[in-house]
Amino acid sequence: MWRGLWTLVARAARGPRRPCTRQGSSTPVPGSGATIFALSSGQGRCGIAVIRSSGPASGHALRSLTAPRDLPQARRACLRLLSDPRSGEPLDRALVLWFPGPQSFTGEDCAEFHVHGGPAVVSGVLQALGSVPGLRPAEAGEFTRRAFAHGKLSLTEVEGLADLIHAETEAQRRQALRQLDGELSHLCQGWADTLTKALAYVEAYIDFGEDDNLEEGVLERADSQVRELEVALGAHLRDARRGQRLRLGAHVVVAGPPNAGKSSLVNLLSRKPVSIVSPEPGTTRDVLETPVDLAGFPALLSDTAGLREAVGLVEQEGVRRAHERLEQADLILAVLDASDLASPSSCNFLDMIVNPGGAWTSNGNSQRLLLVLNKSDLLPPGGSDPSSDLPPHLLLSCLTGEGLDGLLEALRKELAEM
After folding, report:
1. Phi, psi (rounded to 5 degrees) for 100
2. Oligomeric state and partners (predicted)?
3. Residue 48 bridge partners (DSSP)
4. Among 399, 398, 392, residue whose Cα is nearest residue 414
5. What are the helix (H) ranges across 86-217?
6. pLDDT-derived band of residue 25, with 50, 70 and 90 as boundaries?
7. Residue 59 pLDDT > 80, yes or no?
8. If both were cysteines, with which of 55, 62, 241, 332 could 369 make a disulfide (CB 3.0 to 4.6 Å apart)?
9. Dist. CA 299–CA 414, nearest whole Å
10. Residue 334, Cβ density class (10 Å: 0-12 exposed, 13-18 middle, ≥19 buried)
11. Whole-angstrom Cα distance, residue 138 to residue 121?
């Protein structure tokens, strides 16, 4: 058990312990002999575009494109005229920055050109850099790979950087920043330190076990530390699904009987007309899915066919697919018509989906469920509450938007606990 734990923790902690290779070091770094360049900001028209180079010829590239030819002060923005080194034709007046290694993102000499973001300007500067001897276009992710190779980023920080670039919601951004700041690296380092101490206790017992001066309980202390570490690693691995949900989005399935307002709810939550809304029952016959931001959390929202005895082969297949999505769901939004709770379709849906505990049970696994009573605007004002016998639920009107804030808050709590 100890050997396996040591291997797991040592590999997880290897990133933060990687030495920072300085320029001129004898340690080989993949691709370190070439100088690379690329557009570091997004594609398309923009106010400012950032073009970066990294490698030993970055200083030469900066001098080749700028006038005057001397390098600017390190890490200070300087306004320079950029010219094509082949023809001398002016390309742009831009801010340039010089980052001598190893104090740079990649650990190598780096230069940045902050040019105007028009396609012609960006293309001209990239072509000019390509004409400088020793420079070549960077491969996808090569700047980050060099930062990792030079010990500027650990593996978990590289993953955090990728997640931050692709983050679309607040929850994704927060998680990516925590990982980029080294939270996981520090956790792995702590595990490695704990295991190293336990191994030291064991080695001390082996070497000096018969020595009266050896402190009592050494083996018991090592065993306790290893068992605590095993519990911590197991808990972390079990929590991996939560990180995956934040990256890919939780699967939220909207289900209910026909004409309960499922498609209206999907359109309301996605803020766009994803599904056709019609008073005719059975309008939605297939599963319609759309990625959404639900209260700051990424989610894949699925609109499903109304659950009832199918009246045709096409609707029968739609109902089958709806049940399939329910089994795969991380969270179910069970939708009922608040003005028609006594109908056979509503009663059958309640019996089938909502048990007394308020959870749908699929293959023995309890799934999270929110019961939503839609069309609350159709309830008579001041009348008796027809939903008093139901499990905890939320009242909502997709027509007026009343109750939407409460639903979003409930969704936020459910998704945060996943």
Report:
1. -70, 140
2. Homodimer; forms a dimer in the presence of potassium. Interacts with MTO1; forms the GTPBP3-MTO1 complex composed of homodimers of GTPBP3 and MTO1.
3. 116
4. 392
5. 119-130, 142-149, 155-166, 170-180, 183-208
6. very low
7. yes
8. 332
9. 12
10. buried
11. 19
